[in-house]
Amino acid sequence: MTANAIIGFGATLTKGGDAVAELTSITGPSQSADTMEVTSHDSSDNYKEYLIALLEAGEVSIEGYFYPGDAAGQITMHTDFQARSKISYVITLSDTTTTWGFDAFITAFETSAPFDGPTGFSATLKITGKPTLAITASAGLTTTFFAISESAVIVPDPANDTYEYVATVLTTIESVTVTPIAAAGVITVDGNVVVTEQASSAITLGDAGTVTDITIVVTETGETPVTYTIHVARAAAG
């Protein structure tokens, strides 16, 4: 029998659309069910009888290396903990088509500093409400997929099932816009919602000779998001 297991390496956690960096372990959701006893004198065979009562979504536990530069991930998790904020999270498994989506409060946040190892951190996310397990990928981009302003040279040619690109622009170009096309779902460009076939807001590029990453995400209801990454290379000054 052929094994259908998928490797755990490569799983990701995002909060409000931003990835949490340097994770080494993601565990959960740890779902369970409450039970209620309904044994009566009419119960047969001298065995207790039960019904399933309320369902418990449980918790998600994460561990990783503490990265103080992860302002949108680890650091805001601590801010959310102090503010008692409910935030939307998505766990994406390594096959990139299986996701857990849920809302949660952070109930624990901890750093550790062993003398013989890297500084670590851990957090516990208490899920509120019903988590969603999605195993079908969104359709993603459709013809002509996407375009970049300022006559960028894109390699390879944009396609629905190609998820990573390099786009080269002249050194004089300081910002670009991205125009994505999708027949269904919500499209975001760098976390901002964009209407299909309309340009995004201007995205500021780094200095000449640097690369700026831009992400396009297409998400259909009840299905896993599809992410495209564009590495925009601004040519070095002559």
Account of the 3D structure:
With 238 residues, this protein is mostly beta strands. It has two domains: 12-37 and 50-134, Elongation Factor Tu (Ef-tu), domain 3; 146-234. It has one helix spanning 74-83, and strands at 12-15, 18-19, 23-27, 32-37, 50-56, 59-65, 87-92, 99-112, 120-134, 146-148, 153-155, 164-169, 175-176, 178-180, 186-189, 192-194, 203-204, 211-219, 226-234. The strands form five sheets. Strands 2-1-7-8-9-6-3 form a seven-stranded antiparallel β-sheet. The longest helix has 10 residues, at 74-83. The radius of gyration is 23 Å and the shape is globular.
CATH topology of the largest domain: Elongation Factor Tu (Ef-tu), domain 3
* Alpha-carbon Rg, integer: 23 Å
Spatial order of strands in the largest sheet: 2-1-7-8-9-6-3
* Poorly predicted segments: none
Number of domains: 2
- Total strands: the figure is 19
- The structure class reads mainly beta
Q: With helices defined by DSSP (H or I, 4 residues minimum), what is the helix count?
A: 1
The CATH class of the largest domain is: Mainly Beta
Helix content: under 10%
Strand content: over 45%
User: If you average the pLDDT, what whole number results?
Assistant: 93
Architecture of the largest domain in CATH?
Answer: Beta Barrel
Question: What is the end-to-end distance?
Answer: 59 Å
Name the assembly state: single chain
Major β-sheet profile: 7 strands, antiparallel
Indicate the overall shape: globular
Question: Helix-strand pattern, N to C?
Answer: EEEEEEHEEEEEEEEEEEEE
